[in-house]
Structure formats: C-alpha cells, structure tokens
Amino acid sequence: MQNIDPDYERYKDFDFSGATPTKNPQILQARARKKAHDDLSNFFDSDVQEVIKQHNTPKDRERLNTMIRVLFAT
User: Fold this and answer.
1) Element (H, E) at 65
2) Sign of torsion over alpha carbons 55, 58, 60, 62
3) What digits encode the pLDDT tens for the residues 1-60?
4) How far apart are CA 41 and CA 65, in angstroms?
5) How many CA atoms lie within 13 A of 32 on its CB side?
6) Are 36 and 29 spatial neighbours (Cβ–Cβ below 8 Å)?
7) Reported pTM
8) Pairwise CA distance, residues 36 & 30, whole Å
9) H or E stretch including 22?
C-alpha cells in the first residue's frame, strides 16, 4: 500500500513564495491561545495528561485545581 498525504496532494501546486505573515488580530489571538495551551500541556508527562483526560468532570477539575494550588502555595 502506498502512503499518500492528502494535505500535500491538495497544496502541492500552490505558490507560497509571496506569502506574508498575517496581521489579522483574530488569527493572532487564536495562535496565542493555542501556544499557551500547548505550553501548559507540555508541562505534564503524557501519562498524567491521559489521567486528566479520563477524569474530565467538573468535580475532578475542581479537585485537581485545589491540589495544584496546595502544592504550589507560598
């Protein structure tokens, strides 16, 4: 079986040589939010991330936030 990348196939003939960075404030804000989320996600090991995903209820989030506050309280 041949591996085909559909995104590559879709955009392979596009000319991006004149592309410029976006100045759209909504896109820039979305990028900043994604970066902040990625930075926070990378703070935790993958096994911890999986446990958090499995316990995604309001009560569990409240408990997790409380524990983090207790651990890092000064």
Assistant:
1) helix 58-72
2) positive
3) 578 899 999 999 999 999 999 999 999 999 999 999 998 888 899 999 999 999 999 999
4) 15
5) 6
6) no
7) 0.52
8) 10
9) none
Residue type, 60: D
CA 64 → CA 44, 50, 57, 69, distances in Å? 13, 14, 10, 9
Please name the amino acid found at residue 19.
A
Can you read off the two tokens belonging to residue 57? 């209820």
pLDDT band with cut points at 50, 70 and 90 for residue 74? low
Q: From CA 22, how far away is CA 25, in angstroms rounded?
A: 8
pLDDT of residue 34: 95
